[in-house]
Amino acid sequence: xxxxxxxxxxxxxxxxxxxxxxxxxxxxxxxxxxxxxxxxxxxxxxxxxxxxxxxxxxxxxxxxxxxxxxxxxxxxxxxxxxxxxxxxxxxxxxxxxxxxxxxxxxxxxxxxxxxxxxxxxxxxxxxxxxxxxxxxxxxxxxxxxxxxxxxxxxxxxxxxxxxxxxxxxxxxxxxxxxxxxxxxxxxxxxxxxxxxxxxxxxxxxxxxxxxxxxxxxxxxxxxxxxxxxxxxxxxxxxxxxxxxxxxxxxxxxxxxxxxxxxxxxxxxxxxxxxxxxxxx
Length: 280
Hints:
Elements: H1 3-18, E1 25-28, E2 31-36, E3 39-50, E4 57-68, H2 76-84, H3 87-93, H4 96-111, E5 120-124, H5 127-132, H6 139-147, E6 155-160, H7 169-181, E7 185-190, H8 196-206, E8 210-214, H9 215-222, H10 226-239, E9 243-247, H11 252-261, E10 265-266, E11 275-277
Parallel strand pairs: 4-5, 5-6, 6-7, 7-8, 8-9, 9-10
Antiparallel strand pairs: 1-2, 2-3, 3-4, 3-10, 3-11
Helix pairs in contact: 4-6
């Protein structure tokens, strides 16, 4: 299906779901922008490379890029429709779940513009989304990726773990397990090591396909113990048959850390400047 037809399809879907004349997807210079209130949502892609052979690209991580929308893309009848909607409906549409769904739709559509869009696509999901959905996690997005000609098997759901969500780990594991039953792969992202005990326990319980760490943060937090920390984590990841990803490999020091730690995949400015898909 042509890009313009996909945008029309998803705009129709959003309009039907929210019972409002609000069509949040637009095309600018052959790229997709999502409109959410006064925000513009774009996509920034970077390559995940084989650490032993950085020339080989195994997948792409995508980050959201958000900017203010100076002139909302709304026609007069759409403004009138929004004014007539109750505050309750407006707040519902502005929820975390709807924002998360719109952002991932934008990313899936923009991913199609990459030359290598047959690789693994790593998509972050807000933990509040997982906690807010009580069942059938991944069902909504499954229809999105299938309509784009992608598959759940090549889609990796990335969950960033912080200390705020430690006490909700059981609920998060249940939600991620629902994604996995639909064929998605699972990745855990740790920017700060919450605690070694908690990290190892979560890896053991969930057995994620990938565990992602920030080389920049590991160096900052652990100083001379960085390599020892990474070796211990890599061993735990290997036991559960997962792969380790070291992100933010931006200089020679972190590149050496990546090589000596035995992590499987790397991402960062040391290997490339990154590919940006956005028009702001």
